[in-house]
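for the recovery benchmark. tokens below, seq after
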């Protein structure tokens, strides 16, 4: 009788060990599949992240170029304003010199016009 119990107990124990082993193997298989999927997702996300970083770098480079262009344009604008102010001053000085001039003919006006053009130049 004791031998029968040992056999029955050994069979139950073997079935139990096989069941636990199968469940453990299935768990490992599922974990490995989840790990592989996570690694594939990570690779995809790294690729997308790299593309986004490249796009941001391009935008930053374009913004820097626009900033540099704006600074250059502002410098040209300041230079143009200085030149315009100087030209305006020369023109005002030339007009002040011609303030009392009175002529009746074109031939009489030509020396004044030539002088004004020389002064403005």
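predicted aa per position
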């Amino acid at each position: 009788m004791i031998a029968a119990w040992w056999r029955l107990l050994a069979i139950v124990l073997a079935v139990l060990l096989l069941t636990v082993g199968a469940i453990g193997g299935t768990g490992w298989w599922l974990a490995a599949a989840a790990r592989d999927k996570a690694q594939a997702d990570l690779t995809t996300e790294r690729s997308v992240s790299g593309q986004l970083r490249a796009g941001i770098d391009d935008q930053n480079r374009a913004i820097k170029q626009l900033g540099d262009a704006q600074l250059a344009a502002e410098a040209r604008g300041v230079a143009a304003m200085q030149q315009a102010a100087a030209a305006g001053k020369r023109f005002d000085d030339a007009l002040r010199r011609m303030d009392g001039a009175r002529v009746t003919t074109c031939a009489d006006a030509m020396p004044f016009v030539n002088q004004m053009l020389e002064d403005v130049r």
